[in-house]
Amino acid sequence: MNNLQKDTILTLLKTDEMNSNYTNNYWLSYKDYLDPTDDFTDFCCECLEGKHEYIDLIDNLINKDKTAKIFVQVYGLEDEDKVITADTLIIFSKLSLAEIKQIFNEPKDIFPSDIGEETDFLQSAFLIGHNGELISSTELSHEEQSVYYCWWD
């Protein structure tokens, strides 16, 4: 994740916390968030070395659906604002829910707690673009794709 994205997500999360307003969801590209060299991000309590396994799962999905878009939904700050945390992937794909479940449930050691279809979130979700800009999630969806979540506990 670059500095513009870091500045944006820190500002948004701190503002939401100060205002006790937790209605918005913030996403980052999985490539930006799951960068194994970035110790500013933590996915499912797996710092650095654990990110490769999640990237492998995403690569398996992309190999089956070249049009898929995958994002990480950020949910908070830890360690006095030194790490942002997440445990959910947001997936835009032409694949069926059964196919998505099959891909993410294959590994026996990092299978998710829940996988399902998202239906009511697009108005309050924003992608943080490469330049730190906010992009409404409604601009990311296409009619031929369904939107899924994949969550680890």
Short description:
This protein has 153 residues and is α+β, with helices and mostly antiparallel strands. It is 28% helix and 30% strand.
SSE diagram, text form:
Layout: H1 3-18, E1 25-29, H2 30-33, E2 41-43, H3 51-64, E3 69-78, E4 83-93, H4 97-105, E5 114-117, E6 125-128, E7 134-136, E8 146-151
Parallel strand pairs: 1-6, 2-4
Antiparallel strand pairs: 1-3, 3-4, 4-8, 5-8, 6-7
Q: How does this structure look, described?
A:
The chain has 153 residues and is of the alpha+beta class. The chain has one domain (3-151). Helices cover 28% and strands 30% of the residues. Strands 1, 2, 3, 4, 5, 6, 7 and 8 form an eight-stranded mixed beta sheet that branches. The two termini are 23 Å apart. The model has no long low-confidence stretch (mean pLDDT 87).
Low-pLDDT segments: none
Number of helices: 4
Q: What is the string of SSEs from the N terminus onward?
A: HEHEHEEHEEEE
- Number of strand segments: 8
The proportion of residues forming helix, as a percent range, comes to: 25-40%
Biggest sheet features: 8 strands, mixed
- The separation of the N and C termini measures 23 Å
Helix and strand composition category: alpha+beta
Quaternary arrangement of the chains shown? single chain
- Radius of gyration (CA) equals 15 Å
**Whole-number average pLDDT?**
87
The rough form would be described as globular
- Indicate how many domains the architecture comprises: 1
* Percentage of β-strand residues: 25-35%
